[in-house]
Amino acid sequence: MNRYFIFLKYDGTHYHGWQSQPNSSSIQEEIEKALSILLSEDVNIVGAGRTDTGVHARRMVAHFDIEREIDTSQLTYKLNRLLPKDISIDKVIPVVEDLHARFSAKERTYHYYVHLQKDPFKRAYSFESPYNLDFEKMNQAAKVLLSNEDFSSFCKSNSSAKTMICHVKEAQWVRDDENSWHFRITADRFLRNMVRAIVGTLFEVGRERMSIEEFNGVITSKNRSMAGESMPANALFLEDIKYDF
User: What is the pLDDT of residues 67-105, one digit of tens each?
Assistant: First the structure.
């Protein structure tokens, strides 16, 4: 059996997330459909994670198995011709059979984009904040994430996750221009809705409605109702996924 990794990007605006589901369009469904047509057999893919409805990816990785060897450059070209315009394939590469798109990933990075002044060219992919935000305090609070491991407070209720433990390696607000920022966070894994809940809670700090000590208390409480609101999905991007190859 031959295993192949697919590196891709997508605009998630018109999809109900990554994962295939009944009566809803998904990224996984579109790629499996295209692969099955081009390879003349049913093909199932396994993604590195599951982005929610409306979330985008500048880098997603998935793998599939097939008995025969394939011309990866030709497959990449044909996939890009066949797939919708909001999904593109960067490359397809052969990998060893025990390399797994999800379980072999060492870290993942997300960005959440925020702009502070009305801008028609950013509105689709960034959150326009109606508040004055203290990004220095938000960055101080973000550092607290690095010294915690249990992120139950930022996980969507009724999650099926077996563990709430995540190891956050980086968490900071980065200024892009005079009116734009993004929150960059890297971890070995993420819980469902985790990044948007963290950003919503950091907004409470930035609005001076929550102290840094209280932010830490939200985490240690392990109680989702103590955290801030979940931010809109359109401003969230899966930016990168790292492997040891």
Answer: 999 999 999 999 999 999 999 999 999 999 999 999 999
H-run or E-run covering 182: strand 180-187
CB–CB of 168/205 below 8 Å? no
Q: Quick check: is 177 catalytic?
A: no
Q: Taking the CA of residue 241 as centre, how many other CA atoms within 13 Å lie in the half-sphere pointing to its CB?
A: 26
Residue 87 to residues 17, 21, 34, 125, Cα–Cα distance (Å) = 13, 18, 11, 16
Cα angle at 243 between 239 and 244, to 5 degrees?
Answer: 150
pTM of the model: 0.95
Question: The tokens of 200 are what?
Answer: 């919503």
Query: Given a cut of 80, is residue 45 above it in pLDDT?
Result: yes
Distance CA 61, CA 145 (A): 26
Cβ burial, residue 190 (10 Å; 0-12/13-18/19+): buried
Pairing type for strands 56-66 and 2-10 reads antiparallel
Q: Which of 42, 52, 65, 244 is catalytic?
A: 52
Which of 51, 189, 6 is CA-nearest to residue 108? 189
Q: What DSSP line would sit under 81-133, residue for residue?
A: HHS-TTEEEEEEEEE-TT--TTTT--EEEEEEEEESS--TTTTTTSEE--S--
